[in-house]
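ERR on first pass: missing label on line 2. Operator R.T. fixed the label and resubmitted. Corrected input:
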Amino acid sequence: MESDRFATSAVALVKPAIKTAGIKILIIDILTIVEMELRKLRHEPTVLFTRAVQPVLWLLIFGQAFSRVRAFDTGGVTYQTYMTPGILSQSVMFTAIFFGLSTIWERDMGILQKFLAMPIPRVALVLGKALAAGVRALCQVTIIFLLAAITGIPLHWHPALLLAAAGVVILGAVFFATLSMIIAAIVKTRERFMGIGQLITMPLFFASNALYPISIMPDWLRVVASVNPLSYMVDFLRGALVSGQLTSWQADVGILLVACILATAVGTYLYPRVVT
Amino acid sequence: MEVIVEVEQLKKSFGKHTAVKGVSFNIAAGEVFGLLGPNGAGKTTIVRMLTTLLPPDSGRATVCGYDVRRQAARVRQCIGYVPQALSVDGALTGYENMMIFAKLLGLKGKERNKRINDLLQFMQLEDAASRQVCTYSGGMVRRLEIAQAVLHYPRVLFLDEPTVGLDPVARKGVWEILAELRQIYRMAILLTTHYMEEADTVCNRIGILNHGEMVVKGTPAELKAMTGNPGASMDDVFTYFTGNYLDAGGDFRGIRQVRHISRRLG
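pass 2 clean. output:
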């Protein structure tokens, strides 16, 4: 019905593009959003390096100093080595948790409104953005990982384990980025978003096994740590990069996956509300 | 005449404030319909409801025959939307902005490249296409946005204050482009503006909004005739129907946004 009426000489090409629906289109949409974010990153690659500075300081200063304190069993490695997966995970979380700020910024600019008025499934918008955060996190983690390796922190270089670790880094980033978009959709302003972001990052970091094992925590903190997705990310990365033994990978990956699915579902529901 | 946008008794409240109080109007295929009114009159809220960004509280609106609430996905396929703020990604180049949009609109292969290049050329942006958009002038950004919004040849184009914050030359350029696009693509255009004289020259029909109500609608000539003064300007028409031109409200965010735009345009 759309166009044939207008199919006169000069305007013969004027035909509305009708986009079909389906899983293939969904995947293309997600990848297009990822592509957009990566193109932006390509124009501003310095952020990746500046974001890698802080974690490296944690490793080199905090890690080195605390390596002299042998307060708990690190499984036969130095404390610096023990904490490396924790710092990698922390840097992923810190970056991803402020990712939602771009949602608010895009709302203020009107960019988000434009995307929401286009024939793109909402879930593709949310997952595309979150996956882009995952790829960002992966670049950042690679830089930290290489710097850690250069400074002599002994890490495993098994290709299969590295690949698995990369997958888990993406999962973790997807979860925290989606959580961040959910917060953005609820609070709606930058000021409140920054407040909440700062309020939750440190507790999430400390209430995890990033810096110390869950076994030395008081009972109440153990409960928090065991529902904190960050703990499962650290656990997997520690297995893959430090001990080389993935003893509980099913639980780690399973819990991260469930967390991602839940966050994506809630995010998809709430995301369009940023503009209302 | 084919009706492409149908709005009946549309209502929307934000908390206690009723932004749109039962507005009705129709737009025919190929027509340019202007929504006029002071800041806070409800223009943007209407556009956001018709573009499926905001669900109406009550009333009915269809675009291309699809209900904006129940068939939102269908509506999104046949509309183009240019929001009030200059909303292109400054970190990407003009070409990249076009390409991402084209992909998301489901355009493929040669057809995609052809449309992108044709539109960039039409908008006189082909030389700037490989530059990052943050280096563009306000008028160039606006042209790029309009190009993005018509990539899929929508049947209705929604423009929210398309010339706000632009200098007079850029403003004239935008109107010329819209007139030409309309001729080529035969699309209906709904635009909001508070520049009365511009509305007079580009709109086939005008609806004047005040405090969320449609005060009057008709062709510019009809509206002028209604004032009883044949030589009336559009400003006179506006004052006649709304009572007070200076009674412009506008919420804080609206004002902040206009300031923001003006600042970005330097």
